[in-house]
Amino acid sequence: MSSVSALLRDLETTMARGSGDDRAQILSRLTDLFISTAPGMGDDQISVFDVVIGRLARAIELRARIELAERLSFVPNAPGGVVRQLALDEISVARPVLIRSPMLTDQDLVAISAAKGRDHMLAITERPDLGEPITDFLILRGGRVVTHAVASNQTARFSRHGMGVLVMRAVQDDALQTMLSTRVDIPPELTEQLMLAAKNSARRRLTATLEPAMAGAVESAVERSAEAVSAQAQVQDELGKFSAALAAIKLLHDAGKLDEAKVAEFASAGDTEHAICGVAILARLGLPATEQIILGPDRDAVLLVGRGLGWSWETTRALIGLRKSDGKSAPAIERARQSFRNLTAVTAQRVLGFLRMRDGAGQ
Q1: Cβ(138)–Cβ(318) below 8 Å
Q2: For residue range 257-307, what is the model confidence (pLDDT) as tens digits?
């Protein structure tokens, strides 16, 4: 360990008088040395690196911490204290170790989720072989997006209680029903409940399209006829709002001229119908679903779709600008920008896939 002794001497000098770049350089040398010798290290040797690297990691800039997290996330016996320190950092630093590092236990992951919130939880849902303590916590505290993400992790393990909560929520959540239908670990008694929930959802959708029963055969026939005409007129009005825009967008798409820039151009100009039609075609979603994503109450939906399509924040911001007023204040836009930046492409693409399955418009 003579190399470590030399680095420790350099470290004391650097911590006392060195710049941020000097500290990053020393950290890089220490990390190189650790990774090259880690397979043969004992616990005592690793603990030395744990203390030294941890001290440096608290005194370096964001870029260097991100690089450190990326490198240590692949090391099976990385210094545990440093890994936990990085996992509690901001999400750009924490993500690699949250997704990959085997040094984080289920108890660590629960504590990190409780301390940091949704962005860290979403990263954790991408880990292989999640255990029951963390999946129970994510279901309990993570909200709908996190619940969907963890339910789609095919290697995650769920307690009987956790799976029961998922099935119970699926009664009112068609997208969650679709995700759970792909799992092979649902107990038989819960499978029956899930099938019943799916049948009830299908029945609700069908019932919503039927005329209400009216008293008297003649009045019933007349009323159904009148309501059918009224409903048809309403549908035509809704379709008419988009028909011209959809025809123009399809021509652009067929000509190979429909892309992110074109959608951003429509959105920036306030051309809501053309922008929604463009997103619908490029995202392979239906028009009603796309209109709900862009103009509906769930302000995170447009962020997920934008990130899932690989679009820039500027384009996504232009789509947010199509809203009437909700979510357009400066603080709300800044929160949206931070959420967009922290979303991983993998998570966003997974959620976009869920939206396609739910909508029935995906390929």
Answers
A1: no
A2: 999 999 999 999 999 999 999 999 999 988 888 888 888 777 778 898 999
Prediction pTM value:
0.55
- Asked if residue 8 lies in contact with residue 52, where contact means CB atoms within 8 angstroms, the answer is yes
Rounded Cα–Cα distance for residues 158 and 169 (Å): 15
- C-alpha 331/C-alpha 193 separation (Å) is 43
Q: How far is Cα 263 from Cα 268, in angstroms, rounded to an integer? A: 9
d(CA 347, CA 182): 18
53, 68, 183, 254 from 45: Cα distances, Å = 12, 19, 43, 63
Within 8 A by CB and 6+ apart from 278, the residues are 249, 252, 258, 262, 263, 266
Of 112, 110, 103, nearest to 38 by C-alpha is 103
Tell me the three state secondary structure of residue 185: coil
Q: Which residue has the tokens 């941020």?
A: 20
Count CA within 13 A, CB hemisphere, residue 250.
Answer: 7
Identify the burial level of 267 via C-beta atoms within 10 angstroms of its C-beta, where 0-12 means exposed, 13-18 middle and 19 or more buried: buried
How far apart are the C-alpha atoms of 33 and 170, rounded to whole Å? 50
Q: CA–CA distance from 26 to each of 4, 53, 59, 60, 62 (Å)? A: 11, 9, 12, 10, 16
Report the chain's mean pLDDT, rounded to a whole number: 82
> What does 248-278 look like in DSSP terms, one character per residue?
HHHHHHHTT--SHHHHHHHHHTT-HHHHHHH
Q: For 213, which DSSP code? A: P
pLDDT per residue over 54-66, tens digit each? 888 888 899 999 9
Encode pLDDT of 194-252 as tens digits. Answer: 887 766 665 555 455 444 443 343 344 334 433 443 444 343 444 456 777 888 898 99
C-alpha torsion angle, residues 42, 45, 46, 48 (rounded to 10) = 160
202: tokens are: 């299908």
